[in-house]
């Protein structure tokens, strides 16, 4: 018994080491969305381009879409923009934009200057849909299946690597968009 | 400048700086003192998803401001504390609770402090009991040992003096 007790510190250190090691490389800033497996929350917001047109969750019915949260105030969104263009043009992905806490004029200028990867943009200047989605920092990108169910939330820039690792498998599972 | 004057100025500066910290809070109107207390307790128990080691009361992140506003709005609409917390958890996840529900996943979290204290108490009790039992017996020497000890000590003295 005494002998065994002598090894207790070693055992403790090893257990602690394994637990801590498992945590290395995990980014604590990446949170799982509370909405995974649930439908896109109810909303009624204007189209960014057409102020008199109201958009709602039916936007996500019938085809797989990405919902990309962006704003002209967000440097990482600028970083991500070319990748979104690549996805929209090369991969034929339907991207719905959520223009989050932004102003319409600035956002439209951004799109005309840099190109427009979005099929449609929801204009959310007060961040109400963003709040319901649990957006805590742009950019965020959601994968939404053809039934309007949220399947994945990615916080941070979507680039080719992220696309291949996280989104491509879902694309295969839930069907290609527009095809 | 005299020392008391310097201390006086320093004190005045230190005390007046408190009001600067108070500025970061938004201004909310409450019907009663209890309501305000309730609000403060709620926002102290909700965690900011963006700046993860702060509650939404402390954090200046835009998202925390939105969350404070939502808490205030729901409170004004007469929602209970539980409804408010659940509304935020359904959007931002369990993560926002600084005080998680007791369930199968969080039981270790809640039980560990009590468990550690319990183990500590047991260890202390065992140690005290063992030393109490072994103490006087181990300290006492047999006559033979006592004779040997004094012989050794005496020889040492002899050697010291001769050298």
Automatic annotation (TrEMBL), chain A:
Keyword Ribosomal protein attached: no
Localization in the cell: Cell inner membrane
One Gene Ontology term of the molecular function aspect: disulfide oxidoreductase activity
GO cellular component term of the entry, any: outer membrane-bounded periplasmic space
Residues covered by the Thioredoxin domain: 34-172
One Gene Ontology biological process: cytochrome complex assembly
Membrane topology: Single-pass membrane protein
InterPro entries: Periplasmic_diS_OxRdtase_DsbE, Redoxin, Thioredoxin-like_sf, Thioredoxin_CS, Thioredoxin_domain, Thioredoxin_ResA/DsbE_sf
Keywords, sorted A to Z: Cytochrome c-type biogenesis, Disulfide bond, Redox-active center
SUPFAM superfamilies (alphabetical): Thioredoxin-like
Signal peptide boundaries: none
Family membership: Belongs to the thioredoxin family. DsbE subfamily.
Protein name: DsbE family thiol:disulfide interchange protein
Species assigned in the record: Marinobacter confluentis
Automatic annotation (TrEMBL), chain B:
Single GO term (MF): metal ion binding
GO biological process: cytochrome complex assembly
Keyword Flavoprotein attached: no
Positions of transmembrane segments: 107-128
Keywords, comma-separated and alphabetical: Cytochrome c-type biogenesis, Heme, Iron, Membrane, Metal-binding, Signal, Transmembrane, Transmembrane helix
Pfam families to which the protein is assigned, alphabetical: CcmH
Signal peptide annotation: 1-22
InterPro entries: C-type_cytochrome_biogenesis, CcmH/CycL/Ccl2/NrfF_N, CcmH/CycL/NrfF/Ccl2_sf
Superkingdom of origin: Bacteria
Every CcmH/CycL/Ccl2/NrfF N-terminal domain range: 12-153
Cellular component terms per the entry's GO annotation: plasma membrane
CDD domains for the chain: CcmH_N (cd16378)
Family affiliation: Belongs to the CcmH/CycL/Ccl2/NrfF family.
Stated role: Possible subunit of a heme lyase.
Protein name as it appears in the record: Cytochrome c-type biogenesis protein
Native species: Marinobacter confluentis
